[in-house]
């Protein structure tokens, strides 16, 4: 198979998972969706990694708090919080905020990895920030003062920021551990944190429709897509694979229009356009401008 298909199929699975998240509203509680997704992913992954996990005990004793922080950022804040936000925003908004992750990674990287800041990064961040404000207030800036209309978008900003911080910390800490064992440990920690919320909500029974949605989130989105992504990174490199992430908003919005029949409102076009323009601005390949715009942090 063409190696470029690996990252393409991975982002396609993740894009469809956004639609699955939206379809879960009214079918399964947010707390139950978040817990069951990772619980079944944990069960499926267990037979394949249990022997390796035993060998990681010394590693876990040394780096437990780092694994705990990463598990909290990825499993709880990044992916589980989406099930709350999706009850208040359309799938198209989820797609746009997902597209904000690369620019947030660059932003966190300037502080934690000491990567240089360029004029393009600053300009792109400002454009994207304006887009977030416009999108969050649904085009009515008076809502910003009244704190109305943007709770879901605020949760998505936390979610996207959590994954960006997760990505930067993984690179900074460079923990030497098998990728699947690492994911397994993060899921385990995430489940411990999510369990009290799952128990508190009190709805444990699953309908047939709910089981299908959870199965997709647990297997293709949580296990198969990461596997395909890793295969792609191994064969074509991380930088080329990362370019496919830019397809996620487009694929998700297209699926939302076709499957969910979501309308594209004016505020969505303007706010989303500013965010996407900001993302594109940060990747302008202008070496001369980059050198002239460097700032030491």
Automatic annotation (TrEMBL):
Signal peptide start and end residues: none
Transmembrane spans: 34-53, 65-86, 92-112, 117-134, 154-170, 182-200, 206-230, 242-261, 267-284
Keyword match Membrane: yes
Record's protein name: EamA family transporter
Cellular compartments per GO CC: plasma membrane
Domain EamA intervals: 4-136, 151-282
Cellular compartment(s): Cell membrane
Primary site of residence: membrane
């Amino acid at each position: 198979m063409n190696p470029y298909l690996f990252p393409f199929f991975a982002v396609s699975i993740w894009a469809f998972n956004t639609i699955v998240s939206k379809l879960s509203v009214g079918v399964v509680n947010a707390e139950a969706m978040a817990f069951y997704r990772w619980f079944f992913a944990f069960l499926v992954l267990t037979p394949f990694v249990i022997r390796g996990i035993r060998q990681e005990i010394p590693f876990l004793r040394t780096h437990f708090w780092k694994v705990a922080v990463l598990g909290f950022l990825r499993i709880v804040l990044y992916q589980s919080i989406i099930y709350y936000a999706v009850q208040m925003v359309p799938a198209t908004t989820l797609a746009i905020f997902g597209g904000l992750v690369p620019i947030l990674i660059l932003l966190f990287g300037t502080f934690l990895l000491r990567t240089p800041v360029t004029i393009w990064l600053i300009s792109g961040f400002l454009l994207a920030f304006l887009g977030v404000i416009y999108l969050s207030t649904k085009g009515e800036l008076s809502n910003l003062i009244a704190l109305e209309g943007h709770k879901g978008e605020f949760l998505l900003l936390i979610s996207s920021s959590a994954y960006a911080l997760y990505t930067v910390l993984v690179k900074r800490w460079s923990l030497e551990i098998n990728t699947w064992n690492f994911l397994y440990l993060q899921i385990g920690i995430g489940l411990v944190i999510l369990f009290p919320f799952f128990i508190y909500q009190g709805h444990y029974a699953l309908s047939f429709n709910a089981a299908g949605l959870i199965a997709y989130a647990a297997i293709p989105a949580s296990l198969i897509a990461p596997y395909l992504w890793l295969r792609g990174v191994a064969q074509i490199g991380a930088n080329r694979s990362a370019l496919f992430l830019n397809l996620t908003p487009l694929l998700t919005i297209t699926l939302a229009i076709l499957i969910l029949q979501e309308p594209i409102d004016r505020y969505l076009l303007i706010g989303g356009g500013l965010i996407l323009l900001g993302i594109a601005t940060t990747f302008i390949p202008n070496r001369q401008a980059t050198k002239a715009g460097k700032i030491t942090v």
